[in-house]
Amino acid sequence: MCQIDLNKYLDFNKDWATEMRALQGDYFDSLKEGQAPKALLVGCSDSRVSPSKVLGLELGELFIHRNIANVVSHTDLNFLSVMQYAVENLGINDIIVYGHYGCGGIKAAYDNQTNGLIDNWLANIKDVIRHHKQELEMIADETEKLNKLVELNVLEQIENIKQSSIYKQAIARGVQLKLHAWVFDFSTGLVHDLKRKYNIKPAMIGG
Asked: Hey, what's the signal peptide range on this chain (predicted)?
C-alpha cells in the first residue's frame, strides 16, 4: 500500500484559506458567526461519496451525518441527536437520505457473510432484503439487483425517519418536514431523485 503524504492536505488548506481571504475578505468572519444550513443530509461513509463536491456546496449549506450505507437506526443515538438538533435547533425542514450505487455495505449485507462487528449494523439492511425478498429475486442481473437494493434501502430509511419520535413530534407541532430520497451514480456522476424516477407522490414519502 502506497504511503500518503498528509502534509499535502495542510498545504492545500493554507492555499485555500489565503485565496478565500483574497476573494472575500469577510468570508471566515461570517462563518464564525454561526450556521444556518438548508438541509440535513444522511449519507454513506464511503470515501467516494462527497456531497459537497458532487452538489457544489459552500461551507454551511448542509448539515451532514454519515455512516455505513446511510442507515437510519432507531437505536443510533448519534443520528437521532443530529436529527433532533437539525430540526429543533437549526430549523431545518428538508432531510435528504443520500445513498449510492456500488455501496459496499449493501453488498456485504446481501452476500450475508460473517464480517465481525459490522454484522450488527448490516442487520438493518438485511431487514430491507427480507421485506423485499420477492421483488429482488425477480431481478436476474446481479448488478441491477444490488442497485435496486440500494434504492430500496434509501426508501426504507425514509420510512425509518418517519417512525422516529423526532419526526412525529415535529409534525405534531406543525413543522412541514420534507423528506428526499437521492442516489448517487458513480458511473455517470449524476444524482437520481427516486421520487422523480418512480413517480412517488410527496405524501407517500413525507413532503
From this structure: none
Among 40, 158, 162, which Cα is nearest to 94's?
40
Which residue type is seen at 140? A
Could you tell me where the beta strands, DSSP code E, fall in 114-159?
none
The superfamily (CATH) of domain 35-205 is Carbonic anhydrase (3.40.1050.10)
Q: Which sequence positions are flagged as catalytic?
A: 44, 46, 48, 100, 103
Q: Where are the beta strands (DSSP E) in the chain?
A: 39-44, 62-67, 94-100, 178-185, 190-193
Domain ranges of the chain: 1-34, 35-205
**Contact call for residues 73 and 157 (beta carbons, < 8 A):** no
Question: Strand, helix or coil at 185?
Answer: strand
Name 138's bridge partners.
Answer: none
- Polymer length of the chain: 207
For 121-162, how does the pLDDT look when each residue is reduced to its tens digit (9 = 90+)? 999 999 999 999 999 999 999 999 999 999 999 999 999 999
Residue 190: all three cell numbers together? 449524476
